[in-house]
Amino acid sequence: QVQLVESGGGVVQPGRSLRLSCAASGFTFNSFAMHWVRQAPGKGLEWVTVTSYDGSNNYYAESVKGRFTISRDNSKNTVFLQMNSLRTEDTAVYYCARGKVPESYLDYWGQGTLVTVSS
Amino acid sequence: QSALTQPASVSGSLGQSITISCTISSSDVAIYYLVSWYQHHPGKAPKLMIHEGTKRPSGVSHRFSASKSGNTVSLTISGLQAEDEADYYCSSYERRSTSWVFGGGTRLTVL
Hints:
The structure holds two protein chains of two kinds. By secondary structure, chain A is mainly beta. Chain A is 0% helix and 52% strand. Chain A has no helices and eleven strands. In chain B, strand 6 and strand 7 form a beta hairpin. The interface between A and B is medium-sized, with 24 and 26 residues.
């Protein structure tokens, strides 16, 4: 069955960096787009970024553009989120999710990893 | 950018039906046909309930259905069960900005 397991969350100071990972299994990873979606405490879901099946097309929300970078390693069935210049408002649970193509619905999600940006 | 507006909360009794609305503000007609709905129990992975406007993935109960009227899309849950109590989000892809947009979410309480 499809499994997505996020890792790499933790507590980090404002201005610092953090890299999240999402390990995928149970499907042909290199045939699917992969997203990151986040949920700040007490708030709703916010889409962050998506990468196409081969990593050649990446799109970002305005709130993270220029600070976050999505990438993938299809040999390891893993998608990454490099987060630089972190702000307190980036504090959230970060979910990875799968889509057939970047503009397709997100059909499977992981359980998330918590990132806390605080001094 | 497009906006998807949902009520903050709805409630219904066991066995009843409820509807969650999602009002779309967009000049992109296609956005209505790309709407998906997600169920989210706190602390769990969100779950896809409806995609491409009205399609239900395999494994999702037939009690969940969706419809469209004007600039509003709606999720209907019939025969409410205790396990339906969760947060529900509408979402769609916006071609112009190549980005995904989520509604603010609706907390469903089953009485």
